[in-house]
Structures are given as C-alpha cells and as structure tokens.
UniProtKB/TrEMBL annotation:
InterPro entries in UniProt: Flavodoxin/NO_synth, Flavodoxin_CS, Flavodoxin_dom, Flavoprotein-like_sf
Region (Disordered): 58-90, 151-172
Protein name as it appears in the record: Flavodoxin family protein
Biased composition (Basic and acidic residues): 68-79, 151-163
Superkingdom in the source lineage: Bacteria
Domain Flavodoxin-like: 3-169
Transmembrane segments: none
Length: 172
C-alpha cells in the first residue's frame, strides 16, 4: 500500500502528528509525508491512501488571515512559538480547492486546543468534506489531536497518532 500524508503546520505540532501517522502506516507499505506547500507536485493517483491534516483555526481550516495571525504570534516579543517553514504559504483549504476530481481512499485529521470540539471547532470536518467532494471515500472518522495553549502536543498525542496510523493501514 502506498500512502501520502499531507499536512499544514504553523508551529510544528501538526507536522509531528503527520510524521507519527506515517510511522503507524509504514508497516503496510511505502509512505511519503509532505507539507502542503509541496503537495501540489504529487501525483495523487499513485497512492492507495491519502491522509490530510491541518491545525484548527477559528473553528475550521486555516485561512490566509489566520495564518498571518499565527505569524504575528510567533513574532511577538518573548513568544515561545516558532513558525514552521512555509507556514504562511498555501494552506490545506486552498490545496484541496485546487485538486481535480479523483477517486481514492482518504482520511482527515487536525490539531486543536484541548477543549470540547463545540468550543474549538475541528478543521478535520472541513478537510473530510472537501475530500469527499473531490471523490475520495473516507476510510475512518476524522481525528483530532490535542495541543495546549502554546500549541504544543499534549502528552500521549504523538503515540495516539501513530496508533491511528496503524488503524488506517488496517482499513484496506
């Protein structure tokens, strides 16, 4: 099984989740992990499973304005957050909108604050919806991985992401 994991990450937590998911899926075959800024070059038809994830911003997927907000957060004096390379470039929302229709299997994930989803929203819901609109069949319920107020992964979330990846690999 060939798997592609595409992610958008502002401060690194979503990248860590994407890498953990890839480790979990790797037992089932080849896995490639790409930031969304490089995903436009990928031939999605060559993959048996496409896993897409991003951070939750303002109850959903990031927008150019929310990415600028993340950039401003990282630039403020004394900020603990460090912006990922290409974080303010194309986001998952824009990448998914530009995808041609294709039939395939997919899954969606997000990172969000550790609070009820009703309060935080979930980017993975929008990601999953866009994947279905492009012709993908979702092989699993979308999944959220939790971060603290400084956007760092909560303890155990990286291991949980790897476990979710193993479950995805078994959903053939």
């Amino acid at each position: 099984m060939r798997t592609l994991v595409v992610y958008e990450s502002m401060f690194g937590s979503t990248r860590l989740v994407a890498e953990a998911i890839a480790r979990g899926v790797a037992d089932a075959g080849a896995v490639q992990v790409l930031p969304v800024s490089h995903a436009g070059e990928a031939d999605l038809a060559g993959y048996d499973l496409v896993v897409v994830g991003g951070p939750t911003h303002v109850h959903g997927m990031s927008r150019p304005s929310s990415r600028r907000g993340a950039e401003q957060t990282a630039e403020r004096p004394g900020a603990e957050e460090t912006l990922e390379p290409d974080a303010t470039d194309t986001g998952v929302r824009e990448w998914l909108s530009a995808l041609p229709p294709i039939h395939g299997r997919a899954a969606a994930f997000d990172t969000r604050r550790h609070a009820p989803a009703l309060l935080t929203g979930r980017a993975s819901k929008g990601i999953g919806k866009r994947l279905r609109q492009r012709g993908y069949d979702l092989v699993a319920e979308s999944e959220s991985f939790l971060v603290d107020k400084q956007s760092r992964l909560e303890p155990g979330e990286e291991a949980r992401a790897e476990q979710w990846g193993r479950a995805l690999a078994g959903s053939r």
